[in-house]
Automatic annotation (TrEMBL):
Alphabetized CDD domains for the sequence: CuRO_HCO_II_like_2 (cd13915)
Main location: membrane
This protein's name: Cytochrome c oxidase subunit 2
InterPro entries per record: CcO_II (IPR045187), CcO_II-like_C (IPR002429), Copper_CuA (IPR001505), Cupredoxin (IPR008972), Cyt_c-like_dom (IPR009056), Cyt_c-like_dom_sf (IPR036909), Cyt_c_oxidase_su2 (IPR014222), Cyt_c_oxidase_su2_TM_dom (IPR011759)
Protein family: Belongs to the cytochrome c oxidase subunit 2 family.
Organism of this sequence: Dyella acidiphila
TM annotation in the entry: 20-45, 65-87
Pfam families: COX2 (PF00116), COX2_TM (PF02790), Cytochrom_C (PF00034)
Domain Cytochrome oxidase subunit II copper A binding: 94-205
Top enzyme category: translocase
Lineage per the UniProt record: Bacteria, Pseudomonadati, Pseudomonadota, Gammaproteobacteria, Lysobacterales
SUPFAM superfamilies (alphabetical): Cupredoxins, Cytochrome c, Cytochrome c oxidase subunit II-like, transmembrane region
Reaction catalyzed: 4 Fe(II)-[cytochrome c] + O2 + 8 H(+)(in) = 4 Fe(III)-[cytochrome c] + 2 H2O + 4 H(+)(out)
Cofactor note: Binds a copper A center.
Length: 318
């Protein structure tokens, strides 16, 4: 359809618009059909008209089957179509560029993998899949880029993700679309899509610490290393190679050390205790903000497999 509309600036936009158009057309056709019959009946059977008002007989199997099966097939068709699209929308490609987003009343804070940070702005490369890992410092917000046709709630205490591939260079509006307090309407940002070479230049135009470096700094400053570095005298699990591995807990269950688990281990260490350890780790809730937690997780993820000498625990985990 050639209706005036927002730019289709991501790889999702055309497929989402097709689906939307199809549903508008389908609903329109049904509505027109229903209203046409209604108005026709009103005219034919108006008071005083000579229409035949005898009670119609016989069941008409053909018609009943048609009006049951056709809508049924249409609905199932739409369901199958939207599920395919949904799965695609929910599955970031493995080679995506990961960018962290922390929402806060009333701003968007962005952390790039190479260390650059920005507020109320998001620079992304053109034509490359980008995955956003998002959380909130306070209330529920919602990250919404209409030109990309993507929207996702950003929830405190939880990581939600979103991915897209920008297909058009330029600036696009970012909104918060979940009412989040007084200045909700001003919680705006600009998404700038840059051709790959401009993006690379933009990234290095300011030198900053990477999340891993910042995470290591916090890990030392906040005393984590005093317990967790392999050479420390205190009995605490070695975090080398922990990321995404199964962890045996003292209640006999096994969990995966994903981002959510690591966050919980830092904020509520007492809620899941690693098998064979005593719960001596203090909570870091209110002592480190969401950006700090993301940096700590980035650091833990970066310290890959344990150096052979320090692999006492992880190897016995499975
Ligand atoms: C007083 C010592 C101590 C300090 C300080 C400490 N931890 Fe811990 N940590 C432990 C112990 C003991 C465990 C295992 C028991 C448990 O699960 O609570 C643990 C568990 C963990 C786990 C789960 C490990 C696994 O194998 O599943 C993570 C992740 C973690 N800590 C990260 C941190 C971070 C990040 C910090 C700093 C912000 C920190 N710890 C500070 C002692 C400590
Ligand atoms: Cu908001």
């Amino acid at each position: 359809m050639s209706v005036v509309r927002l730019p289709q600036a991501s790889s999702f936009a055309p497929s989402i618009d097709h689906m939307f158009d199809a549903m508008v057309i389908l609903c329109g056709v049904v509505a027109i059909g229903v209203f046409a019959v209604m108005i026709g009946m009103c005219i034919v059977y108006r008071r005083g008209s000579k229409a035949d008002r005898s009670i119609p007989v016989a069941q008409q199997m053909g018609i009943e089957l048609a009006w049951t099966l056709i809508p049924f097939l249409l609905f199932v068709g739409i369901f199958a179509w939207s599920i395919r699209l949904w799965v695609h929308l929910r599955s970031p490609p493995a080679d995506s560029l990961t960018i962290y987003v922390v929402a806060k009343q009333w701003m968007w804070k962005v952390q790039h993998p190479d260390g650059r940070r920005e507020i109320d702005a998001l620079h992304v490369p053109l034509g490359k899949p980008v995955r956003l890992i998002m959380t909130s410092e306070d209330v529920v917000h919602s990250f919404y880029i209409p030109a990309f046709r993507i929207k996702q709630d950003v929830v405190p205490g939880r990581y939600t993700q979103l991915w897209f591939k920008a297909t058009q260079a330029g600036n696009f509006q970012l909104y918060c679309s979940e009412y989040c307090g007084t200045n909700h309407a001003a919680m705006l940002g600009t998404v700038s899509v840059l051709p790959a070479s401009d993006y690379a230049r933009w990234l290095v135009s300011v030198t900053a610490m990477t999340p891993e470096q910042r995470g290591r700094q916090l890990f030392v400053q906040m005393g984590c290393s005093g317990c967790h570095d392999p050479q420390s005298g205190i009995r605490a699990p070695d975090l080398h190679g922990l990321y995404n591995m199964p962890v045996h807990l003292n209640d006999g269950t096994v969990v995966q050390a994903d981002d959510a688990y690591l966050r919980e281990s830092i904020v509520f260490p007492a809620s899941k205790i690693v098998q064979g350890y005593t719960p001596i780790m203090p909570t870091y809730q209110h002592r480190v903000d969401e950006e700090g937690i993301l940096a700590l997780i980035a650091y833990i993820r970066s310290i890959g497999p344990a150096p052979p000498a320090a692999s006492q625990d992880r190897s016995s985990h499975d």
